What we know:
By secondary structure, the chain is mostly helical.
Amino acid sequence: MAFVEQLAEGNPLPGGGCAVSVAGALAAALGSLSGQISLRKAVEPGRQAALAAIQPQIERARQTFLDLIDADALAYHEVVLARRLPRRTAAEQEQRAEAIAQAFGRACGPPLEMARLGLEVLSWATLLAEKGSPVILADVGVMGFLALAVIHGGLVNVFANLTMMAGAPPAAEVHREAAALKTAAEQHGRDFAALLYSRLAAPSS
């Protein structure tokens, strides 16, 4: 794939944030696949209703992840421009430092949204693991574990950006949300894995 080749070229963009968003889009696409197959199988009506309800949400998530690829690249480009500002005088150095901190603050936005959305995809993967057809459990497993990687991948980008914000006031709020998402991901990830592997041990369920 061209995107994979671009990642391997050694340029700053695309980078890890873009890769996270691509992984999110793949996870959501697997959710669409798994849901559609389950709905065509002999699944109980109650399960079918629950699976049908999440399909439009999964599709919106897939598109959002695709949009976040460009959003993340543009945000990092602002960081690059801020770092290129002149720093010959003390005033220029101060202005540059403030511009860099603000740019990194804006750069927290896309990966934080990826992490939020990744947690939603993980919740849908859990629902599919519980109510979906046994034939899609492998795809759901990849979906869920990709979603978990998306959450943590987004968060490491956020935490890395926060270290460059020099204690700017918005940093504390972003840090609190990121920490809460990390805790939620760890718990939901354990729950998802336990449910998935229990169904795989009894595939006729």
